[in-house]
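Have a think about this chain, tokens included, and walk me through the fold.
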Amino acid sequence: MAGLTSRAVRVDLGHAEGMPRVRLRLRHEPSTDPLLGSRLHIAVLSAAAAGLAWVLGNAIPSPIGDYAYYAPLGAVLAINPTLANSIRRSVQLFGALLLGAALGFGFEFVPLPGPLGVATIVFVAVLASAWDVLGAERSWVMTGALFTYVLGRVDPTDFVVGMVAQVSTGALIGVALTMVLPPMPLTLAQRRLATTSAEVADQLDSAGAALCAEAGENEQDETIAREIIPDLQRLRTTIDALDESTIGNLRARHYQRKVERYRVQADTVVRVGAVVENVVFTLAEVQSSSQPWLERGSDLSRSIAEVLQRLATVVRAVGADEDIDKDDRQDLESRVDELERTIRQYRDDSTWIPGAALVLSLRRCLGVIEPEPTTTVVPPLTSPGHREARRRPFKRR
């Protein structure tokens, strides 16, 4: 089901009789494409690049000039939110088209009937597009091969040279405009940082409110466990795009400190958010079991709720691009210390295990939160496909 990959799970945090009430509902997951945050800038660049490519493409003498309609295509495909990605995609596009054109040209000399020839060239081109070096532009192998085989039958040499030359001309124009007027998705990064931190803080506030409520009170609003890892991943993708946008960007020096600050704040939110999701789901699962851990509305539940809500305040400050107040962090740390001392009293019963897990998770959050953002960043939740080379160390100025 496209676009509905994120889930929200609702589980009662109060005492449960028999099986817990669990409802699974799907929610729409927004696109992770960082280009969407710079849509107006990209639209202007694309329009300018396409128009200029059309003029220059038609100015090239025949036979290459006869294929000028490929120049705007190359220009638009080369436009990207970051210069580094624009160059990378242009090179991949050139390689994919050249490979596809070579396949199509070669099959012109293979005596196959029309339908069989088309099927064979598509089969070979799709296999060739599996080459990882081509990246996101791999689909152009089949396009180049099919266009050359079908449209270039009259004069395949002119067609191949014209198509590749015109697309390359357009791509060079797109890269040049991206270099001169590179977008920087600062606004998108700031908005996504604020939105994601608010999601994490709301999760904490909701859990605290549910633990403080009396049994039977606000039952419809007590089911608060939600999956937030997809939101954290989108935030990281956006910050990575912002970080990459500084490569070759003439404006990067002016915004470098802000980019560094957003990177550190995002890492803080991502790492705390991952722990928070685990904490809330653990609370929900333990409370929904046949032996619930906490009596809702008890002193222990209220102590835990206060710590969670204090942590929510700190997370919101990070998302609002504010320095964390030293008093707030010290207060949070003292409350965690007090909670640990309280839970130590339950060593002899089953409360000790989930309580110790909760304190450990809160200690992990404290280890991430600093009154002043540091430039020493521990990469959070690194996925196998994530390029660590894109994480450049920050230099304190």
User: Anything to note?
Assistant: The first helix runs from residue 39 to 59. The CA atoms of residues 210 and 221 lie 8 Å apart. Residues 6-29+186-390 form a domain with the Methane Monooxygenase Hydroxylase; Chain G, domain 1 fold (CATH 1.20.58).
